[in-house]
Every structure is written in structure tokens, then in C-alpha cells.
Design a protein that fits this description.
By secondary structure, the protein is an all-alpha fold. It has 5 helices and no strands.
């Protein structure tokens, strides 16, 4: 199942499993309630996926994460908390 999820994500985003795991580790090791950490992750995701994120949208994403207002419906597709955070952030881009 884990491989299947990574395959679906890679097909849709063109982001490799290794990149996803690397970003998840950054989230795990970092403080995902820290605005600077979140900005770094958003910029990295934006670059990797080739999707531009406006300053307004970036601020909205950060506010949603810090205030725990990230949609929870993606949880059924994710199996651990470090990847859940990454998937939730990526879903907002």
C-alpha cells in the first residue's frame, strides 16, 4: 500500500518518493508550528512541483497550519504523522 500511495503522488506531482521522504524528515525534525520552517517547506514544495504560490496563499497556508485548521480528510491516505503533515501542506498548494 505504501508504495502505491507514493506511486500515485509521484504520478500526479512528479515528485519522487525520496524527495517526499526527505521533506517529511525536515518536517519531523523541524517545528512545523514555526513560520520560518513552514515558509522554507512551502518554497521547496513550490519549486519541486513547479507550482507558484502567491504571498497571500503562502500566508493563508501558514495560518491554517499554525491554527490547526488543515483539512483532515487526507488522513485516510496517509499512514504516519510525518508524512501526514507533508501531504496536508502539499494539498494546500
Amino acid at each position: 500500500m505504501n508504495g502505491n500511495l507514493f506511486n500515485r503522488i509521484e504520478e500526479k506531482t512528479k515528485v519522487s518518493k525520496d524527495t517526499i521522504i526527505s521533506l517529511a524528515r525536515k518536517l519531523q525534525d523541524g517545528d512545523y508550528k514555526n513560520e520560518n520552517t513552514l515558509r522554507d517547506i512551502i518554497h521547496e514544495l513550490s519549486f519541486i512541483t513547479g507550482r507558484e504560490v502567491s504571498e497571500e496563499k503562502e500566508n493563508k497556508i501558514i495560518d491554517m497550519i499554525i491554527q490547526d485548521k488543515v483539512p483532515k480528510d487526507i488522513e485516510k491516505y496517509v499512514w504516519d504523522k510525518q508524512t501526514k503533515r507533508l501531504a496536508n501542506i502539499a494539498s494546500l498548494l
